[in-house]
Amino acid sequence: MLYYNEKKNEITTEQISLIVGANYVISFQEGIEGDVFAPLRDSIRNDKSRIRKMKTDYLAYSLIDAIVDNYFTILEKIGDNIRAS
């Protein structure tokens, strides 16, 4: 997973691993403060959320989708820096 550090104006990386089984998803991450999974955690805590009603493949997809969506945010910030230069 990539992060844009605005203070240092650099991109940092974090290793994310997923193990997906029929009835479980295990995720490991290095522990950089803050991540893109906070909205998913909030959704999982909501008993009526779609993510709670779906199977593990949907949860794994949602985790990967959150990572990829964050890449677009990083690309926008890089584009802003290029225009400002």
The residue-averaged pLDDT reads: 90
- The coarse overall form would be elongated
Low-confidence stretches: none
| Strand ordering within the main sheet | 1-2
Number of strands: 4
List the secondary-structure elements in sequence, H or E: EEEEHHH
Distance between the termini: 26 Å
Radius of gyration: 15 Å
Q: Quaternary status of these chains?
A: single chain
3D architecture notes:
This protein is an alpha+beta fold. The chain is 48% helix and 21% strand. It has 3 helices and 4 strands; from the N terminus they run E-E-E-E-H-H-H. The chain has helices at residues 38-45, 50-53, 56-84, and strands at 2-5, 10-13, 16-20, 25-29. It has a two-stranded antiparallel sheet with strand order 1-2.
Q: Descriptors for this entry?
A:
single chain, 85 residues, alpha+beta, two-stranded antiparallel sheet
Concise summary:
The protein is an alpha+beta fold and 85 residues long.
Furnish the topology, listing elements before pairings.
Elements: E1 2-5, E2 10-13, E3 16-20, E4 25-29, H1 38-45, H2 50-53, H3 56-84
